[in-house]
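#help-structures

NK: newbie question. if I give both the sequence and a SMILES, will the prediction place the ligand too? trying with NAP
OV: yes, paste both and it writes out the complex. here, I ran yours:
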Amino acid sequence: MAARQPTPMVCVLGGTGFVGRSLSSLLVRRGYAVRIPTRNRQRNRRLLVLPGVDLRQTDIHDEFALEEVLRGCDAAINLVGILNERGHDGSGFKAAHVDLVEKLVKACQENGVTRLIHMSALKANHQRGPSHYLRTKGQAERLIKTLCGEEIRYTIFKPSVIFGSEDVFINRFATLLRRSPILPLARLDARFAPVFVEDVALAFATALADSDTYGKTYELCGPDIYSLGEIIELVRRDLGLKRLIMPLPGVLGRLQAAIADYLIPGKPFSLDNLRSMSVASVCSDGGLRQLGIAPRPMRHIVRGYLNP
Ligand SMILES: NC(=O)c1ccc[n+]([C@@H]2O[C@H](COP(=O)([O-])OP(=O)(O)OC[C@H]3O[C@@H](n4cnc5c(N)ncnc54)[C@H](OP(=O)(O)O)[C@@H]3O)[C@@H](O)[C@H]2O)c1
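OV: that's the protein plus ligand as structure tokens.
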């Protein structure tokens, strides 16, 4: 009788988040054992219903703890990311996006983890990124490309905004529209190609098992391009609400972002977010199709979860 192959173990950093939950569930269905470090095991215990998930309370910024959590893993996936930092000088973004990646590559090398899949963001660029978010995401990409060497085979994904029933993006606008008759917003002309969270998860799971993706970077977009104004209008119609969506000109838009940035607890929006929106979040190539995945359009899926 042939010996049974051991179950491959994947460590998913950021596996408790919106994308991470979708991906972890897919990996389990595909027969992987999944280890997920988290800062708060109790808050994320619903992941324990997935068979084969090892949810560990760990501080991944601690190099020893990171090495410990990677021990025995065949691959690492990094989904850790923040949209806003506590302060305003970029150090929070650097810690979450850049310093962590440097520690992660080192920990992979120390533990013989030879496969790394990293989540960046569309238009991330270490020099030309207009915001701390996009610059630090770009710096992390550059670090991975220079540090991984021959030992670690990496793949990088750069998605546009991601939608799905548990997203922040669409659901936040739905909440705002439900609460207020008037919605004044900046940068309604900002462009996005929203990509479905399950397509993103599929891209990661496909890459994990495909050596052709080694050393490559893929942009991930949905099939349609929308302006922010069009997305909000679509949500408004799906909710069946009469609302006034009011474009805010430059200076008022910056004032609104500054108020949310400095005065509202939890920073629902920030000047850094506003700067990120100054570049069109649309793909220059079709990363999903290169992986054999047909991107699903947003319209019907969003309607399904706004009106379940
Ligand atoms: N959602 C989008 O539209 C979108 C678009 C483009 C790119 N991305 C990128 O995709 C990745 C996943 O996004 P997401 O929407 O799933 O994010 P999310 O829901 O906020 O999840 C991020 C996860 O990372 C962990 N995390 C966050 N900050 C951390 C920190 N300072 N130290 C350690 N762990 C931390 C959290 O885990 P614990 O709280 O359990 O520790 C959290 O579950 C991010 O890198 C994001 O930048 C997202």
